[in-house]
Amino acid sequence: MTPQFRLYAIVTTLAFALVTIPAFAMDASQAFVASGCDAPSYDQRTLTDEVQGQVRLNFLLDEKGDVVDAKITGTSGFRIIDKESMRALKACRFNVGTKAGVTAGWNNLAFVWKLK
User: Fold this and answer.
1) What is the reported pTM?
2) What range defines the domain where residue 98 resides?
3) Is residue 77 within 8 Å of 53, Cβ to Cβ?
4) Tally of structural domains, the chain
5) Cα Rg, the chain, nearest whole Å
6) How far apart are CA 68 and CA 79, in angstroms?
7) Which residue did the predictor score with more confidence, 58 or 32?
8) N or C: which end of the chain has fewer CB within 10 A?
9) Are 52 and 115 in contact (CB under 8 A)?
């Protein structure tokens, strides 16, 4: 995974979230990037197959900011990037209750997978 693809995935995720997701979910997208969590990334197979799509996720946070439950609410149509999006989300720890953060409870987030 090249740094350019990773950066592009993060920027695309934020841009999409700011335009299409309700206000309470915008904080989740910003909080994901601000938390320093690893963004989901393409592997060689998905790059070769030129897989693209959008994955929408609904996730439950506890008071510590850990993801305790998550589900896909909108599939990309490709299991491999759906699964990678879920893995990246579950590995993340959010700052709950901060100004740009999220709240304990259910939140929404979308990852957009797009090749340049």
Assistant:
1) 0.70
2) 3-113
3) yes
4) 1
5) 13
6) 21
7) 58
8) C
9) yes
Please tell me the least confidently modeled range out of 14-23, 35-44, 81-90: 14-23
Three-class SS of residue 69? strand
Distance CA 111, CA 13 (A): 5
Find tokens 């599939």 and name the residue.
Answer: 75
Q: Which residue bears the tokens 């995935």?
A: 9
Give me the CATH number covering residue 71. 3.30.1150.10
How far is Cα of residue 74 from the mean position of the Cα atoms in its chain? 12
Where residue 116 falls among pLDDT bands split at 50, 70, 90?
confident
* 44-57 CB burial, b ≥16 within 10 A, e <16: eebeeeebebbbbb
Which residue has 């592009």 as its token pair?
8
The CA–CA distances, whole Å, from 15 to 20, 33, 47, 96 equal: 9, 12, 21, 22
